[in-house]
């Protein structure tokens, strides 16, 4: 089965997590990190989820899931430790064309939650289409070792340079040439070495040579 990869912008969007255990906690944390408006339905919560509720970071209904609870949410994650409940949530969402990820039931998911490496504006997502989250986690750990925090700074600089070029260079062909020169200029290596002077010199050369 081939899937089309998408990155959803969930900031400010209503998302529902059904379940209050450790798995649900990890899902909730990921949603909170991207600014989603999270609601939890579960008769019991981990101490960390309860803390988030007490701090006003999410809404909570301390009860079992009921048919129709998914209505109005953009994304739903069924993360209880009871497969029949996860199936109930999934089928409820599928009938309403709601995005649903049911933990450990890939055949009832219409999207999968990838393992993610974030370095500033760099996002690397790893998915096994629900076949093996453990393998996805191992791949993520390898990528975390390869792509260090310097990539966040690298992209911050490239974003600023892109905005400058778009503002100051009207010719599309010259813009493209500058962007390609910047991408090949070894700016990342300068950042990794902490050599600010070499970084400034390479940037200036790129902006003037194309």
From TrEMBL:
Its EC number is 1.3.1.76. It is an enzyme of class 1 (oxidoreductase). Transmembrane segments: none annotated. GO terms for biological process: siroheme biosynthetic process. The keyword NAD applies. It catalyses: precorrin-2 + NAD(+) = sirohydrochlorin + NADH + 2 H(+). Residues 119-145 form the Siroheme synthase central domain. SUPFAM superfamilies: NAD(P)-binding Rossmann-fold domains (SSF51735), Siroheme synthase middle domains-like (SSF75615). Keywords: NAD, Oxidoreductase, Porphyrin biosynthesis. Residues 151-203 form the Sirohaem synthase dimerisation domain. Pathway: Porphyrin-containing compound metabolism; siroheme biosynthesis; sirohydrochlorin from precorrin-2: step 1/1. GO terms for molecular function: ferrochelatase activity; precorrin-2 dehydrogenase activity. This is precorrin-2 dehydrogenase. It comes from Heliobacterium modesticaldum (strain ATCC 51547 / Ice1).
